[in-house]
Amino acid sequence: MADKMGNTQFKFGYWWVNNKTKIQKYIKYLLFVIVGILSVIFLLYLLQYIVNFNQANQYMSQISGQEVNYGGTSQPSAIEQGNSYSFSAGKDKADLMGFITNPNPDWSAKTLFYTFTGSGGTTQPVESFILPGETKTLTDLGVPNSGTGTSKPKIVISDIKWLKAKTDMPELIFEFNDLKYQTAEPVSGDDSAGSIVSGTVINKSAFGFYETKVTVVLTYSNAPVGVGVTRINDFKSFEERPIELRFPDRYPIGVDMEPEIEVNILDEDNLIYPGQ
User: Fold this and answer.
1) Distance between the two ends of the chain, CA-based, in angstroms?
2) What are the tens digits of pLDDT across the range 259-269?
3) Distance, CA of 245 to chain centre
């Protein structure tokens, strides 16, 4: 047994002496290749960072220095209003929702205010914004039924401050994963057990955002039946975050979920620069 082991060691030693130089050379080449690949990856990342950072500076120079007034013939078209809805949100409360569209490809509404007006009255004004060509969902949740516009609501837009866009907006890229709908148990002794939508969302944009609004519209047979809203703070670029939205009611089997992201890229204070 010892002779066999000694013979094996002798053969290995002989092989090592004859191939040592070649092996060291191959290892050196392999290390060069690995260092080269890592260097290319680092340079690509650095280049992407520089491009994103320059884009951020150019974009922020645009939106911080641009006048919001307009005149002459280059006036923006009026914001278009879609359907509005009222959903029960528990005892004596309602969740209000409506859609608006900005038909202008080169105008943003840097700020605007909206209310819901119905046969019961008018809700309190809520501040918002809208990007060029954007269709977005406006909401006012948990509104008391008494003295407000919860019955047959319509959206009223006021105090619009327009912003002329000189360059393309940074692309907003978000990806939702594993969205699921499930019924929920009663909360804090509430007799009406509602439902929950949960999942994750990835920010694949070049920017991060200090505040990101997530809206999920529930539909059944292509008709809205409920709406929920949650917010994500300090949502950095290429980060994945969990979301959970609670709804006051349970809905039929087969309800569909339509998620929507809202981030105010017109507000410099809401942007997290690349690498920050």
Assistant:
1) 64
2) 999 999 888 88
3) 15
